[in-house]
Amino acid sequence: MNFDFSDEQKQLRDSARRFLEKQSPVAVVRRVLEGDEGYDKELWKGLAEMGFTGAAIPEEFGGAGLGHLELCVIAEELGRSLAPTPFSSSIYLAAEFLMAAGSEEQKAKYLPKLASGEWIGTFAFAEGVGEVTPDRIASGASQGKLSGTKVPVPDGEIADFAVVAANTGGSGVRSVSLFLVDLSGAGVTRTPVKTIDPSRKHARIAFDGAAAEPLGAAGEGWSILTNVLDRAAVLTAFEQVGGSDRALEMARDYALERIAFGRQIGSFQAIKHILADMYVSATLARSNCYWGAYALSTGSAELPEAAATARVSATQAFQHCSTNNIQVHGGMGFTWQFDCHLYYKRSNLLALNLGSLSQWENKLIERMRAGNSAKDAA
Amino acid sequence: MNFDDTPEEAKFRAVAREWIGANAPHELDADLKRSGMGGLRLPGRDVLTESKAWQKKKADGGWAVPHWPKDYGGRGATPIERVIWQQEEGIYNQLSAPFAIGQGMCGPTVMAYADEDIKRHYLPPLASGEKVWCQLFSEPAGGSDVAALRTRAEKDGDDWIINGQKIWTSGAQFSDYGILLTRTDPNVPKHAGLTMFIVDMHAPGVEVRPIHQMSGGREFNEVFFENVRIPDSHRLGAVNDGWQVSLTTLMNERMSIGTRLNTGFPEIFEFCSRFELPDGPAIDDPAVRAKLATWAVKASGLRYTAFRAISSLSKGERPGPENSIGKLVAGVMTQDIAKFAMELEGEAGILADPDEAPAAALFQNLLVRSPGMRIAGGTDEILRNIIAERVLGLPGDIRVDKKVPFNQVPNR
């Protein structure tokens, strides 16, 4: 059994960490957080030059042709460093959609630009409050024109194009189709929205007869997006694990450094036990993510269950670790000056990007049940 | 990244599987499959007799404790082969329970500290299950703080004379030998005055009294020592070096990977799939699903954490510290699961008769057993301290008794 990343993949992780420590220090995260720039352009350029954006994109489409295990280790480091870039929108979502459902022409048109970082893509899915279900998608498309309002769309203001889920008639899962829409074209109005984590910008996009090109077959949208959301969930879970580990380290370091009542606060069991519990949830999440990575990279039939498992576990872990990181820091953890809040905000943002925890819990149990009845029948 | 055996591992697995297929006590299959969370039950048969029979058969075939050296009753298997053996042994592994402490903790301690003639005398019958061993560390005054133990060992010629009491000794009622941690010098701080011995559980002056637990079971014992003589040749390690020796024992406890940790998750998932609430199966209820999902990812996290450890063994590396989370996660989870299932059962959740209670009273049984899981082998709190100090590198607790001679430490 070799349930681990290879030495080469670990080296890639190390080089990603070194790069991000240098190019994405907290000062860069704060510049995006406190400014109007949608992302850090220098960092984004660097990620493309390092070959990270194209890691899992085939060589024939301008990528490095490595694989999803490589993308997982990069994702972990992006999460750890809170890198303020559209990596998740452009690579975990847009590129995955194109690889999953794009025609040869669409792949040839978009993937090289995504791999090089020249274009930024995103996925426009939610239409306001509540879980997105096929029947709640009010945006509609017909005869190459798409209308409706999507909010919140990650990186919606800076993206060059979006994959948009829209109703193409009827109800239920067969009513949803996917479209590629040029966001600089006519009939597209974008406005920034304020979110809990301004280091990752989101927008409201109003489409009014925008030119839309079908992605995948009509009526197949829900099935395609379900698969792509699973893939993105595994990659996002690695970001969450990276963030969990960093939050745990910050809390540990502070517990060693801070003196109260004449001793290091880390010598108090009340603090130790908080940290031990953070270690437990981060460890469980990491192990579950490895399963997700395995399923993602091998195209295993286990992917739906493994992805939901990784997603639920990593969401819980990052929220738990980032919350308790503040608690261990005491009053200083509540200041703008200390970095604890950056992780707290990111953890709660990632917990809702791609759908809420309870939605993924629901998916997980649904899928385990289906898996079990399949086993029973076999 | 894969779950596949290497060619050598596959070869070992095939040999082990074939031998087990040809030799396992298949007449017990039905009972062994039915057991699991509730503890091993073999209706109409004696569990210890069946366990010893299987262990002896394994010994004759060279499979008793595969990872031990041949000279002591093993076959010199590698750590990964040990895991493969356990996986292949499957349901029959439950029959190894009476020997788990002896082979997992006592044996490695004897191997590390005893003279060669002692090892050759004691280890082969421990491996073959002919002799059963127990571990005598905890005392009424020394549980989590085991170094505060008070059982005295006093030198008398070539012998030591033991007086005192141990508690929470698993399997003492059917053990032939034990490893015994004693106090040999009360005039020095507590860790510095301990010595380890091999004790004959049938020696005059040893009395075993089962403890009636809150679960109704009697798996643990009190053991009393009154002027019990142990020859100096049966000392393990130097006089007053017993604390170091005991760390070897406890380290080996942590090395045992792959033994399936019961969490109660498969049971609660199965239960919720079939149990009908007024609006349909429990598993369709969103609140039930949220609970199940949280437990599912814990159970899965433990499974894949073990796989990571096994992968380290496969590469010839020592597993990392992540394996230390298992019992901490499983104990409290089992307790929560028991209460949750009973909650779904409504007022009838109080029924404990297997013929009447849902799921044959499995969850009612777990309710009264699970508190022990959170205490035995290190309480949840001690485990958190260990993770914080040894894994995360936090400072040790400030200890008021650290530099004080043991006989001057306040006690009540």
TrEMBL record, chain A:
GO terms for molecular function: acyl-CoA dehydrogenase activity; flavin adenine dinucleotide binding. Residues 6-118 form the Acyl-CoA dehydrogenase/oxidase N-terminal domain. Gene3D superfamilies: Acyl-CoA dehydrogenase/oxidase, N-terminal domain, Butyryl-CoA Dehydrogenase, subunit A, domain 2, Butyryl-CoA Dehydrogenase, subunit A, domain 3. It holds the Pfam family Acyl-CoA_dh_1. Keywords: FAD, Flavoprotein, Oxidoreductase. The keyword Flavoprotein applies. Signal peptide: none annotated. Its cofactor is FAD. SUPFAM superfamilies: Acyl-CoA dehydrogenase C-terminal domain-like (SSF47203), Acyl-CoA dehydrogenase NM domain-like (SSF56645). InterPro entries: Acyl-CoA_Oxase/DH_mid-dom_sf (IPR046373), AcylCo_DH-like_C (IPR036250), AcylCo_DH/oxidase_C (IPR009075), AcylCoA_DH/ox_N (IPR013786), AcylCoA_DH/ox_N_sf (IPR037069), AcylCoA_DH/oxidase_NM_dom_sf (IPR009100). It comes from the Bacteria. Residues 219-352 form the Acyl-CoA dehydrogenase/oxidase C-terminal domain. Belongs to the acyl-CoA dehydrogenase family. This is Dehydrogenase.
Automatic annotation (TrEMBL), chain B:
It comes from the Bacteria. Belongs to the acyl-CoA dehydrogenase family. Pfam families: Acyl-CoA_dh_1, Acyl-CoA_dh_M, Acyl-CoA_dh_N. This is Acyl-CoA dehydrogenase. Residues 240-392 form the Acyl-CoA dehydrogenase/oxidase C-terminal domain. Residues 7-130 form the Acyl-CoA dehydrogenase/oxidase N-terminal domain. Residues 134-228 form the Acyl-CoA oxidase/dehydrogenase middle domain. One of its GO terms (molecular function) is flavin adenine dinucleotide binding. Signal peptide: none annotated. GO terms for cellular component: plasma membrane. It comes from Chelatococcus reniformis. Its cofactor is FAD. Keywords: FAD, Flavoprotein, Oxidoreductase.
